[in-house]
Design a protein that fits this description.
α3 crosses α4, α9 packs antiparallel against α10 and α11 runs antiparallel to α12. The protein folds into three domains: about 350 residues, no CATH class; about 120 residues, no CATH class; about 160 residues, Immunoglobulin-like (Sandwich), CATH 2.60.40.770. Strands 8, 9, 10, 11, 14, 15 and 17 form a seven-stranded antiparallel beta sheet that branches. It has a five-stranded mixed beta sheet with strand order 4-3-5-7-6, with no helix packed on it. It has a five-stranded antiparallel beta sheet with strand order 13-12-16-19-18, with no helix packed on it. The chain has about 750 residues and is an alpha+beta fold. The two termini are about 55 Å apart.
Length: about 750
């Protein structure tokens, strides 16, 4: 056999995807389309409401909603595509207080058409709504593609629902706005039009996809190669590859012009692999085994792959010829030095979801074909044995004919294989995706989910924002930045906290990029530097203006320097800590009587508590936040620290922390008798705590006792339980109170 004949044979074997046969638009089709539309509408309504609630509740961060809002606003107002927001602790883009081009970080020309919407609706909520609507439309090509491949409208509706429920998609959607999140829908359309051979629309959505992020041209190049190999569409496939190569050339040219280093600033995440794309490629080719072990088989990387595949019940693994389309995106995430890219959360996996949906469809096609093939083998074997049986039973030929006629009247088993098999497979993947949504999704039943609640504290922030002139530069806390980022110079505190016209902070909010102790030190340094004075100080908010007189040191301060120093802020500033009795959770009464207290009765009582999350939780949400409610019983309460601790099932203390920021601003010595004070710990990471049952405890310490020493145990304030619910008890011999228990799971 000549090589030409061999090549022709293998080419025909690889020709798996000819032009699809059309299906008529029957009533069943329109009913199914109505169900998909309903599912997309419910998805949109839910996530738009969630986004707006999060924005109004000040739960959206500077990175990246604030950065996108400023960059898109600057396209219309100038300076063009300029971004001044950066994380001074770990970002690579803090080159100048005047900012840098957004194109030095990501190449996202999709922002240009999006900016036109800002002509009518210049608000970060616009981005969130627009993203949700675009992502929801991806359900339609998922349905159309599944319908053509599976030849069943209602199973195709299930595939569209699988797309909408996919945890990786929901994580990308809920994590505010990102250009790459739009690729979930755009690439889904691209796959559909590639399969149906609609070249014009294929290129339209390929271009839209590539406009969303710089690595998507690699994905489109793989699409082109796949089309050439499996569809034998040489011209359109080669054109896709060529377009991708040209686009990548433009990307590197833009980076060279826009970046202060001449290279993509996020390229440092891959610097360990080599200097530049060619050196990286050479190192990957020359060291494939070691890199595979380090970045694929390593535990956290392997867990990432499980997170991606488990929602589809691992069915995509049965269609490796389709799953290969995700290789560029998987490589970008798995080989990054930034662990956020392979946690399975955030926006990084949005572009992989369409390939997972397509490979799930193809796996179902393959399994049903395999079942039909097996049934045919059984039927052919029975047919071959029939002549022998006929010779043996000639005398009963009439009876055989009647039985054969009865059997022929029944529909063959193979006719039921496809609908039954598809129904079972669909039930499997929908069960799997809902199960995974509990851990990694963003649904109301997902672990750790809570609906955002707009409080009077949030509403006060809006009134304070109105006091900041639009032309002024501001250094603000992460959750405040998105609300004031439509200005030429907005910085993520502590960046710019020596030059900004205003500094806007919320001591009750998320302190990113600083840890809580670092944040407290930095804010106090700014307050006592002499460069800024207090313009507004209310309910935990600080609006500082450059040039005003500094506040000085409070009379309640335990020291004049160091961590114990307390700035002299008005009483209204600490109103965030004072609550009414009906706000207390898990009421109880435990009296504490410090040796320094002058009163004969208890100086202070624990009257409530809360531990979140209060149930089992795993690695993805291994965090804890403790709230304690205190009632002051006497004047001149001595300065105290609050200690929270975690003991294992063997009674050993595995973790302890005195990180209750309220004490750093409103010390116990300033609390007034009769008031109830709420103290909330920082978010405490429990990654090093052993798996199993854990007990949460609370204790009080004199302020001058250093944490992490034996004095932390021996100097705890004596306590006495007056009344408490079941489960609350003294921890024997420790002067600590056990308030809650939960299980840490893998």
């Amino acid at each position: 056999m000549t090589w030409r004949k061999r090549f022709a044979i293998w080419r025909n074997r690889l020709y798996l995807y000819p032009a699809p046969d059309d299906m008529p638009h029957t009533r069943i089709f329109w009913l199914a389309m109505g169900l998909v539309t309903l599912a997309a509408a419910l998805f949109s309504a839910y996530f738009i409401s969630l986004h707006i609630g999060r924005q109004d509740a000040y739960l959206t961060p500077a990175e990246d909603l604030g950065t996108y809002n400023q960059a898109i606003w600057s396209i219309l107002r100038g300076p063009f595509m300029r971004q001044t927001i950066c994380n001074i602790i770990s970002d690579t883009n803090c080159y100048s207080l005047n900012g840098i081009s957004r194109f030095a970080i990501h190449f996202e020309p999709i922002l240009f058409p999006i900016s036109l919407v800002y002509l009518a609706l210049p608000d970060p909520k616009t981005l969130l709504v627009l993203q949700t609507l675009v992502v929801a439309t991806g359900a339609f090509p998922a349905f159309w593609l599944a319908r053509l491949r599976l030849r069943n409208e209602f199973v195709a509706v299930g595939i569209a629902i699988l797309y909408l429920l996919y945890p990786a998609l929901q994580q990308a959607e809920v994590f505010d706005f990102h250009g790459v999140t739009l690729t979930a829908a755009f690439l889904m359309f691209t796959l559909y039009f590639m399969y149906t051979r609609r070249t014009l629309w294929l290129f339209v959505f390929a271009i839209l996809s590539m406009a969303c992020k710089e690595e998507i041209p690699l994905v489109i190049a793989f699409f082109g190669l796949w089309s050439m190999l499996f569809q034998q569409r040489w011209r359109s496939g080669l054109a896709l590859v060529g377009l991708s190569v040209v686009w990548l050339g433009v990307v590197f040219l833009v980076y060279r012009v826009a970046s202060p280093t001449g290279h993509p600033l996020l390229g440092s995440r891959y610097a360990y692999l080599g200097n530049g794309p060619l050196q990286i490629l050479r190192n990957v080719v020359t060291h494939p085994v070691s890199l595979f072990y380090q970045h694929v088989l390593e535990r956290s990387h392997r867990q990432y792959l499980i997170v991606l595949l488990a929602p589809a019940a691992f069915l995509p693994l049965l269609a490796p010829w389709v799953l290969v389309l995700a290789v560029p995106s998987l490589a970008v995430n798995l080989f990054s030095s930034d662990p956020n890219q392979y946690l399975g959360i955030f926006q990084y996996s949005a572009e992989i979801v369409p390939v997972l949906i397509f490979s799930t469809i193809e796996s179902m096609v393959f399994i049903v074909w395999l079942v039909k093939w097996y049934i045919r083998q059984i039927r052919d074997a029975r047919a071959a044995a029939a002549p022998k049986a006929e010779q043996i039973s000639k005398d009963s030929q009439g009876e055989d004919e009647r039985v054969g006629a009865a059997r022929a009247a029944k529909p063959p088993l193979s006719r039921w294989a496809q609908p039954v098999g598809l129904s079972l497979l669909l039930a499997l993947v929908l069960f799997a995706v809902v199960r995974q949504d509990f851990t990694y999704g963003a649904m109301p039943f997902s672990r750790g989910f809570s609906w955002p609640r707009v409080t009077a504290h949030n509403q006060l922030a809006g009134r304070i924002e109105a006091r900041i002139p639009a032309s002024s530069s501001v250094s603000a806390q992460s959750n405040l930045v998105p609300h004031i980022s439509q200005r030429a110079r907005i910085y993520l505190f502590p960046y710019g906290d020596t030059v900004a016209d205003y500094i806007f902070l919320d001591v009750t909010g998320y302190t990113y990029p600083l840890t809580s102790p670092q944040y407290i030190v930095e804010v106090k340094k700014v307050l006592l530097s002499g460069n800024y004075g207090v313009f507004i100080a209310q309910d935990g908010y600080l609006l500082l203006r450059r040039g005003l007189a500094p506040p000085g040191i409070s009379p309640s301060s335990t020291s004049q320097t160091g961590d114990g120093v307390i700035p002299n802020l008005p009483d209204a500033f600490c109103s965030f800590a004072r609550v009414s009795p009906n706000e207390v959770q898990h009421a109880l009464q435990v009296d504490f009587n410090p040796p320094q207290a002058k009163a004969s009765n208890s100086a202070i009582s624990l009257v409530g508590y809360n531990v979140a999350p209060p149930q089992s939780f795993g690695v993805a949400t291994r965090f804890m936040q403790v709230t304690a409610y205190w009632k002051v019983n006497a004047v001149n309460t001595p300065p105290l620290k609050i200690l929270t601790l975690l003991t294992g099932q063997n009674g050993k203390e595995e973790f302890s922390s005195v990180d209750f920021p309220t004490i750093s601003w409103c010390p116990t010595s300033s609390w007034q008798p009769g008031t109830i004070v709420r103290t909330v710990s920082s978010t405490l990471y429990l990654g090093n705590v052993p798996i199993g049952l854990a007990h949460v405890g609370l204790a009080l310490l004199p302020f001058n006792v250093p944490p992490g020493t034996i004095l932390t145990v021996t100097n705890r304030v004596p306590l006495h339980i007056v009344s408490a619910p079941a489960g609350v008890s003294l921890i024997s011999g420790t002067n600590a109170l056990q308030v809650d228990s939960f299980t840490i799971v893998p």
